[in-house]
Amino acid sequence: MSKKKDLVIQEEIDKCLRYFSEDNNNNNNNKSAQEQLLRLLQEVQITLDEPIVEDSINGTRIRFTYITTISRKGGGKDEAVIKFQYMKEIPVDYSKVPLELRHNITAASTVNDTISHNNNNAIEEENTIIESYDELEKGIPTLCEVLGLLKKIYFMPEDFSNRLVVDRIHKLRDMFSKDEILTFPSIDLSDNAGLIPI
Question: What is the pLDDT of residue 45?
Fold first, then answer.
C-alpha cells in the first residue's frame, strides 16, 4: 500500500502566503486575496502518492512522477475528485552529484596517504552528500507549484482533440470559480513541471 502525503499543511500554506507579500503595490488587494486563499485551502485537499523516480538514459536528468489527487468539500459533501500526474525533470550533473552515497565519511578518506589530504576529502565527501539530497528535494512538488499548475490548466483553451484534457479542465472549472482560481499563485513558465490528466 502506498503512503499518501498531504500537501495542504501549515508550512506549505505559509510559503504560498509569501507569494502575496512579494507584491507590495496594493496591500489591500493582497490581504483580501490572502484571506480568500486561506478560506479556500480549508476546503481543499491535495494529496501526493509515493513518487516514481527515474533516471534518463543518457544520465543527464532525473524525472519525478507523483499521482496527485485534488478534492474539495462543498455544501457538506465531497465534490468530484480530480487526479493528475505531476511530472518534473531536473538536470543532474553526476560528476557533482554521485549515484552512491557513503555512510562512513572517514572510511572513504582512508584511501589517501596524508592526514591533511584525508581531512579535505572528508569535508568534500560531506558536502557532496548534502548536495545530493538538495538535488533530490528539487523534485518534490510544493503547494504553490501545484496551485500554480492548476491555475495554468484552468485557463487553458479547450481546443484539444484529447477529451480527457477537456474533461479535466471542465471538472476544475466546476470545482473552483474564476475568482477563487485567481487567488492561486502563478508559476514560472520555465519550470520543467506539469500536471497531466489521468
Answer: 93
Measured CA to CA, the distance from residue 192 to residue 139 in angstroms comes to: 10
DSSP lists the bridge partners of residue 55 as 62
φ, ψ for residue 107 (rounded to 5)? -65, -35
Instruction: State the residue for C-alpha cell 470559480.
Output: 177
DSSP string, the chain: ----EE---HHHHHHHHHHHHT--S-HHHHHHHHHHHHHHHTTEEEEEPPPEEEE-TTSSEEEEEEEEEEEEEETTEE---EEEEEEEEEE--TTTS-SS--S-HHHHHTTSSSHHHHHHHHHHHHHHHHHHHHHHHTTSPPHHHHHHHHHHHHT--S--S-HHHHHHHHHHHHHS-HHHHTTSPP--TTSSEEEEE-
pLDDT tens by residue, 137-150: 778 899 999 999 99
Bridge partners, 85 (sequence order): 67, 196
* 71-122 confidence digits (pLDDT tens): 987 644 446 789 999 999 888 776 765 554 444 444 444 344 434 444 444 4
Res 132: pLDDT: 56
Check: CB of residue 186 under 8 Å from CB of residue 146: no
Q: Which of 23, 2, 7, 49 is nearest to 183 (CA)?
A: 23
CA–CA gap between residue 197 and residue 68 (Å, rounded): 10
